[in-house]
Write a structure and sequence with these properties.
Layout lengths: L1 H24 L1 E6 L6 H16 L3 E6 L4 H10 L4 E5 H9 L12 E17 L14 E3 L6 H13 L4 E2 L4 H9 L5 E7 L5 H6 L5 E3 L4 H10 L4 E5 L10 E13 L5 H13 L1 H7 L8 H8 L8 H7 L2
Parallel strand pairs: 1-2, 1-3, 5-6, 5-7
Antiparallel strand pairs: 3-10, 4-7, 4-8, 4-10, 9-10
Helix pairs in contact: 2-9, 2-10, 9-12
Keywords: Receptor, Signal
Protein name: TRAP transporter solute receptor
Organism: Roseovarius atlanticus
Amino acid sequence: MKLSKSKNLCAVVIGASLGWSAMAEAETLSLGATNATSSHYQIAVAMAKAIETENDGITVTVVETGASVDNIKRLARGEIDLGLVAGDIFIQALTGTGKFEGHAVDDLVALYPYSTSIINIAVRQDSGITNLQELEGKNFTPGIRGSGGEALISAAFELFGIEPNYIYGTVTDAKEGVANGQLIGYSKYAAANRVDAALQELMTSTDMRLLGFNAEQQALIKEKIAGVGFIEVPAGFIEGNDAFVTPAVPIVYATRKSLMDDATAEKVARGIGEHTDILIETWPQLADYDFRASILETQDIGIAVHPGALGYWQQ
């Protein structure tokens, strides 16, 4: 009888131990995205699903944020585990320059890329504005406060000596302001190969024009702002628009080595790499995107990659 009790007690202890082990393996990750009205938020939700699909015991919570700059500040405070970061902002944070002058986040590392984004500087066509200099003194939204787009446009315009009357707000605020004539235009990051959803919606009621950067402006940015390239967008990208040249930067999801160990980083990268079908369902343009090649290319412009994630992408 005593032997039976001992066996029962052993079974209880083993069962409890297994339960505690399972609890210990469960993990919740906070993913800092961007404004909920952005298409980048939609793909963030798909990313969370992909990571969870690959990894039993991992739950990913998507957090609405102000995008790149805000996400890095949250990573620095340990408030999120990974977050969207534009390539130029990543390098500024890593090196303690630009928006992060004197406040380097020196263990910032990328987990995976998912896009090369361009800056759309969109103005009302009836404004008559055809170049960046003509934004001087005009009511203009440079992007979501704290976003990589806002940081890049603010820095670029300062280099050019252009001083619009900046009006800050959400993407929705910008669309409404342009539509009712309170704003002359706005800027934000968008996909390089399709018209941004916000611009598509705005153009149902308002004729718009996209502005580009001239050769002198491009050279100045390349000299002064690391991590920014340029691409030419062909004529007709939106109806009646001429070809234009605009900044292009890689967009990654980043963490800090002090926040995420190699094993977790590998799991996150694997979730993205093995379930691109989930991402393509939300963003069809990702069907032609090479995640492995892109993460390796980001290293060439100074973006560090988490060793755990790199181990997966190099397989």
